Amino acid sequence: MDRILRINSKKIVKRLANSSLKTERRRNIMVIISIILATFLISMCGVGIFASSQRQKVLSEDTFEVMYRNVDKNSIKLLRKQSEIERVGVTYSWGTWKNSDGKSMAFSYMDEDALYISRKQFHIEQGKLPSKKNEIAVSEQYLKKYAPDSKIGDKISMDVGNETHNFLISAILKFENRDNNTYIFLVGDQFITQQKGYQENGYQVYAHFRNVNMMSKEDVEKIASSISQEYHLDYEYSFLYLNSKRNQSIIDYIPFILLAVVVLIAGITVIQSIFRISISEKIRYYGQLRTVGATQKQIKEIVKKEGEKLTFIGMPIGILLGDFFGMLIGGVKAEPEVIIGTLVISVCVAIICMIMVRCSIRKPVKIAANTLPLEAIRFVPFKNEDLNRKKFRQRITPSNIAKINLGRDKKRTISTIFSLAFGGILLLVSASLLVSYSAESQVKTKVFANGGKFRIYLNDEHLKVAEQIKENPLNEELRQKILAIDGVESVIKLRNTIGEVSFVVNGVENEGILCDVISEDSKEENSAFIKEHLISGKFPCSKSEILISDTIEFISIGETINITYNDRKIPVTVTGIYDGSYIGTSNGTSVADDSYILITEELADTGTMLSDIKNYSYTWEILVDSKKIQNVTGNLANCIKTALSGVSICSFEEEVEYFENQMKLLFGGIQAISWLIFAFGVVNLINMTLSNQISRKKEIAVMRSIGLTNSQLYHIFIIEGISYIVVSFTIILLIGIPISVLLCKYLGNLLGGGIMIYKFPMTEMLMYILVLVVLEFILAAWCISNAQKHSLVSQISDID
After folding, report:
1. What phi, psi does 567 have (nearest 5°)?
2. Is the pLDDT assigned to residue 218 strictly greater than 90?
3. By CB distance 3.0 to 4.6 Å, which of 48, 611, 627, 693 could disulfide with 607?
4. What is the residue-wise DSSP string for 486-526?
5. What's the whole-model pTM score?
């Protein structure tokens, strides 16, 4: 019998919940919107972080290749037959030439596997790789600047060396990393084999071993060495990505956790307010149920069922939208591993959402269940404040009535103000970071610290082979030509270098490391400047002592290492560590050429290195009259063109544009999330305004019957709404500005100092106020319109 009663009780509770849902359309819509917003934000962040890390993981495990040099076509065929090799990418470098603007144009051949290997750098946006002699793949940047109307299949003419070549565009290349100094072109193998200087064994092969992510570095070295000996090939390899597979830790998901907490707070506040208002409006209904025998437990179950049904309507929509945009942000395809990870995150988001709704309705459920039948009959959806005589005798004006209404339900008022202020604070902070960041200041601090407008430097062609430094184009002759340009004020020598070196630390070889020379004629590498930015240790006293950058790990002061340079190993001792962000700075964002090692001129001048070289110039900064910048730009390009092909240029404007785009993407994304969280407050404000109109309709009808005009009623609603806006905005300013100032100071120091001086985001805050004010005017107009649809008699006599 008890079991039958329990079954019948469940059916009754379910029917009553469904019946209640049908009568609460406004509340249902508001709750569903809140749930969709919450699950969308949490899911998008979680899947986005997972997808991004998954993409990096795939790249790390799938981009380690051993490079074999000086390979002929026969050896390529044999390498492809090796059981240990999964993929063979073939390239051939034809050469690099300067165009009329002094930009480098690099031509090479590349097959499909090599293109796949290079996918981190570039990919084919349109078309296909060149297969015929006259076909060419052109970089998107080159076409935009020199042939903006060209498309696939069009002819394009290029001056390469001393010859003019006519090509058909077969593909357009899109680069992930910007490089305005070099344009990349891919040509077919048929074209390469017919050019002067073609060498049959001039191909480079990138061999990707099977299951390389599961192999130790000893295993890779053993296989690579064995193949090299079998085919008499030179090879090189790097363990940059080898065994870099790392299980994701809780640290990776800190942004996800923080966002989840923020959304939970916003969601709980709004949904609780919506349910509490709904229950207050229906408290008589619950009292009637208690009168006919419904227990407290059944009342609780009815409200819980309503919350569950609304959750299962809004939650799937939010999660699906969040998953889609998260994968879009992460830039991954719907592969099995990605789908499984996304499903796991979706389940976690669903659990978080159900917890949020349960927490939200917990207090409203108690209110509904604990109200006695007799109390429910006398219950009103708002609580009148105790009024002293002075207040009671105040004139009945729209402003006084609005003040009384605001104090009737303090919890409802505080909840609305909190939800508006919470989203507003996030918006203020994110907008402050966006407007306070100065790309120009960062470029001045990091790249052009001496006030210059251009940096010219040696590119890879003059850094990899020591013998080429002997023909250093950054000589006195070029310097005088630059100084002769109208508008150039001075040429500052920033860095000196001997080129690239390598060394081994903990069994891992570090290659392509720039080794700079301590010189008194260089701005960034003179002894006084270095001592100023020495983090620890002491300045070198002999030629066998060196300094290392703080970016190099696993090397301590006093340790002796062997530097490999010009096929010679030179033992040196580390005496100190310097701040790499100030000494030997990189030549812009498109190159990675920070200084990692500093040696003395005494060591550089010995027979061990380059005893017959006295010109180690690597980077010059050019100071320009800002009024003559256009004249300098063109003449400087011509000057560079006449130099050897190993010189590249970096401009102030290009760097500012790059940093602005990067930070807009970062802070803009945060601001977009802030606007979505702010939407919680808007939902709460809309729900509260509409519920006020419904719960006070009898009172409003009485006031209208004794002479309250629509204009006065409109003013009451407007004053109430503006009061919420003013109070919430005051809280936003009091809390948001100090937080923004502290964050700007912290991030400014992190980026190099002086880069983020706090600025108030006037535009964003005006938009915030405008959105709420317009919304209040619309809601007030709707309330007046809705009140006019019913007669005063029907509204006064309506006890529900």
Report:
1. 65, 20
2. no
3. 611
4. TTEEEEEEEEEEEEEEEEEETTEEEEEEEEEEE-TT-SSSS
5. 0.60
